[in-house]
Amino acid sequence: MLYEFDDFEQTYINSNQIKGEISSAFKASFFINPSKSFDLKSLTFNSDNSFQHVKLIDYNYIAEIVDYFDESMITRNIVDIPYYKQKSKKIIFKPFRNNMSFKDGKLNISPTYLENNMLNLNLKGTQTISDSVDYYMSFNWKEIKKRNKKEKEDYLEEKEEIKELFLRITGHIDDLNYRFDREKMKMQRAEKVEQEIEIVKKIIKGEEVKEVKKDPEFEIEWEEKDSVTGTDQPKLNETTKKKRKKKDSTRLNKFLKKIGVEEERKEKPKFEIDQ
Question: 3-state DSSP call for residue 214?
Fold first, then answer.
């Protein structure tokens, strides 16, 4: 379709960069000039789409996202950049569905999960006929973190509950702005805390609660000076013996330990005998 209509007179993506099949159920109203070009200002449509065998080939905007991962203090120390640069040359997607609508010169893309051979992601957003975009992406933190080949294979089989990384892309397609949405990350953390508080309340009331799995913790480097290496940690005296913690049989303390809250260990009272 892109080839037949001269890429719809846009430069964001061309017929050589995307391959695949699409079937749609849509309603549309538009005008086609004798030269087979669309009058985009008059175009309106709403479509439910099914995509199969989709491939992105040498798509510059994907490469720019990888470059941003390499530059950002949040991801540059955890992302396997060479791996993603290699995969970005040809991305193969599993079949997916979405809804797209166009009105008043703006394309709207519904929230869509894109499973592929590079990095699975959620995508939604808008793009205008003047080539201004506002896209939201989110990535599974476990999948994006740096790991070697064996760890990649092991990671695919893990089913741990993981945080997400949120990316927003705005601006003209010739000068895009990339930034991680820290507000969404904070909201995600706040929701998790609220859930844990509710569980504590249920335990105190004696209600039954489901087994809670603690999320893996990842350190995010926000500033250069915050980076800490293993050599910066003080060495412990090798002769110091570790005191074994007394096991807690109460459900509340078991839960607190799961979410990373340790009960303060009480010291045994000391007695002195006068002779």
Answer: coil
